[in-house]
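Exercise: predict the fold of this chain.
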Amino acid sequence: MRYTIDRYMNVAMANNVVWLADGKSLAYTTNITGVPQAWRVDAEGGYPEQLTYFDNRIWALYSLKKSNGIAFTMDVGGDEKNQIFLLPLDGSAPINLTANPNAVHQFGGIVEDEGKLVYASNARDSACFDICSMDLKERVPRIVLQNNDNYNWPASLSPNGRYLLYNKLKGQSDNALWMVDVTTGASKQTPEGGVGAFTHPVWTSDSSAFYLLADQDSEFVYLARYDLASGRMETVHKEDWDIEALALSGDDRYLAFSVNRDGYSVLKVKDLLTGEFVSLPEIPRGVISQYSSMGWSPRAHKLAFSLASGGRNSDIWVLDLDTKSVKQVTFSSRCGIQTDGFVEPELMRFKSFDGLEVPFWLYVPRGRKAKNLPVLVNIHGGPEGQERPAFNPVIQFLVNQGLAVAAPNVRGSIGYGRTYHHLDDVEKRMDSVADIDALVKHLIARGIADPTRIAVMGMSYGGFMTLASITEYPELWAAAVDIVGIANFESFLEHTSPYRRTHRETEYGSLEKHRDLLRRISPIHKADRIRCPLMVIHGARDPRVPVGEAEQIVESLQSRGREVEYLRYEDEGHGIVKLANKLDCYEKVASFLKKHLRVD
């Protein structure tokens, strides 16, 4: 059955789950009203209650430890200048604690006994993040630690409120974890001298140690423990896949984490008292998002997490170790779409130009065989990202409309080890584009794709990959869609938000050292090679990839009389978030692709 665009764009998804202090109820975000807002539900199930009513999306939720309340971050129109809000859940309105729309704020924690907020802010210097604190009554910012480098983002505040762990982030696996004494401002690197991916720290209840994820001296991310007294980090558990999404129970007994095994999440729980892994009830196959929180109830051995799959929209689940049971708590609307309207992808692989094995996910329309199909190659962003079998309403809509979708994890993607992740760094950038050429040739050789009906689409870095694909290999494509993509690396690095520049130069190359390379790989200088019709989509308020990137490629093609369609959304940032805009945008994307791929 064919479904209309409004069905798919209204499919609800529940994420960002946190336990409230009573240990009986959960707060989470869902987009059921059009943009993600905060809701509350009893952990045993029941009718959920909406907590916030904003026109802008809420990015993340944080639970207070002693009183039933939450903090959350929210921006305006996608500008990513997040403000920190406090919502006591006593019926009163949310309080904007930071109230500085010209600065970005990142939540660190709230020390309730002292009535103090700890956070990071670039209010002093837009290129740097200082560690700050604020009395919740006076609401006057105080700089605890002034920094002169870019990313210094809070990671975890100790239970006693004294120590804030924060990341000095240069790249996905090129950062360091630091700790600052919030009282004195003294800071040090923890572990000392460590460079790698140090993420997701969780404190023990007595604030004497914390568990974390690291990849120092390792091909894959592993589970470790850092002891404050000795200053030593020790390995707790390793696998031949990345470990992610870490949570420690309130009594320090159970450590939960998920393993990213070829894109799917495998949940594990280690009993720290016995040293053994706990036998868990069966959990549906899917993806536990590392970007969405996973946590234990403060009063029981119950673990809440969000779970999705290619054919299952994201919902909140609770694992109860004491009863050895797992249950779905939220049941997000599928807007009347039956099971025939969702497709689970198949994991496949191909050999690239140099023999490298590259994985990709293939979505095939229901009732069709993987033979001579119109195919959309959909490329993830990042580039330190990973295509996983999680629910994507745009992909599901396009598949329902008759397109097959091939979603690759080209070299440079995470999830396949440190070596794979760094195969596209700086001078090796175009090798990842060559992977796309190899994928198309594979799809044609296998008979999956009709060689005259292949398109490419990507968002953010995937937008650059789209533009690079149609300039480096113009003969392959019948159409292309660039969503908030980079057309010119020089202008991108010159105009992206100041605090992001150093972080991005680690991956792409610097303006100081690599300007010739950046110019050479930028699609804007090869726009004359583009043969296929192109659709360009961008938000006017985008702080990551400024809208000028879209305007450059559009103007270049228009001046050459080439076919290009441009969708500019004045109230969006890095991506299309608001429901009305998604309905407009992706209906036009589908019509554009169906026209040029000759899909009835």
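Check your answer against the key: The first helix runs from residue 5 to 9.
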